[in-house]
Amino acid sequence: MEHLRLGRSGLRVSRICLGMMSFGDPAKTPWHLDEGRAEPIVRRAVESGVTFFDTADMYDGGASEEITGRLLRGLFRRRDDYALATKVFFPVGEGANDRGLSRKHIMAAADDSLRRLGTDYIDLYQIHRWDYETPIEETLEALHDLVRVGKVRYLGASSMFAWQFAKAQHTARAGRLTGFTAMQNHYNLLYREEEREMLPLCLDEGVGVLPWSPLARGRLTGRRETARAGSDRLAAMLYGEADQEQVVDAVRAVAGERGVPPAQIALAWLLSRSGVVAPIVGATRVEHVDDAVGALGVKLDEEELARLEAPYRPHPVLGHE
């Protein structure tokens, strides 16, 4: 397993991050796996050298954080042997302050996440989206206080416009507050709009990029239907363009010539992009972990990269909601 520094920070993380959104209560969400079925998958990731894990407080009402915390405590000898990321923003209750990036909600949400995860600190605490109702100064001051008291080590952000991220970084510097070390954004072979502004900004700022949905909700695995597709409304919204099938065909073709699964080709392409530190890969089978780790050994040449990129057509900005 390769490890890289997360942006310009001193934190080193595995080049594959295991996304934990697939773990929760299958009675509520058909494609979720309970803790018993999740354990072999997380174990395989750990045995393969994965030390970076990503969840969020809103995933299955907090159940993902609980499962993540229990499994990692059982699979690692020391807390410092892995990096744990979670997020705050989306509703986690019915109360007026159970959402957003206000000081009140951030402080309460961080304590709740720490309790569910069963840990004293979060390695990477990420704002899940931009809050249009809360001044960024208030959000950054609250996050800075969490870092200052040791509950959080590093800060990250997720899908937003580049101008918003630039404003946040400038505000942090101007106020001598902790800035963002990572950007978890929507980026894969089917959606490359981030290459216009966000990726150049991250490179300039020394921010590590952690793409979510690196396999486009399973579309880039070469399978036309997945277990998740039937109940995932976001997948239909993000990947409904007819021309995207040409990209999938290119992935299948290169994979066939290489004799590897399409997922490895799609991930190898992402891993080749400047600034990308670790794709966040979800897994519902052990084989998904094997494909992700196997992608580290696939080095695409210039001709293959060109073939994979050629069918892409511009799309509306998606994933900031």
Describe this structure in words.
Strand 8, helix 6 (198-205) and strand 9 (208-209) form a beta-alpha-beta unit. Helix 1 (35-47) packs parallel to helix 10 (286-294), helix 3 packs parallel to helix 4 and helix 4 packs across helix 5 (162-174). The longest helix is centred in the middle third of the chain and has 15 residues, at 103-117. This protein is globular. The protein has a single domain, classed as Alpha-Beta Barrel (TIM Barrel). The protein has helices at residues 35-47, 63-75, 103-117, 136-148, 162-174, 198-205, 233-238, 244-258, 262-271, 286-294, 302-309; strands at residues 3-5, 12-14, 17-19, 52-54, 83-88, 122-127, 152-158, 182-184, 208-209, 280-282. An 8-stranded parallel sheet has the order 9-8-7-6-5-4-3-10, with helices on one face. Strands 1-2 form a two-stranded antiparallel sheet. With 321 residues, it is α/β, with parallel strands linked by helices.
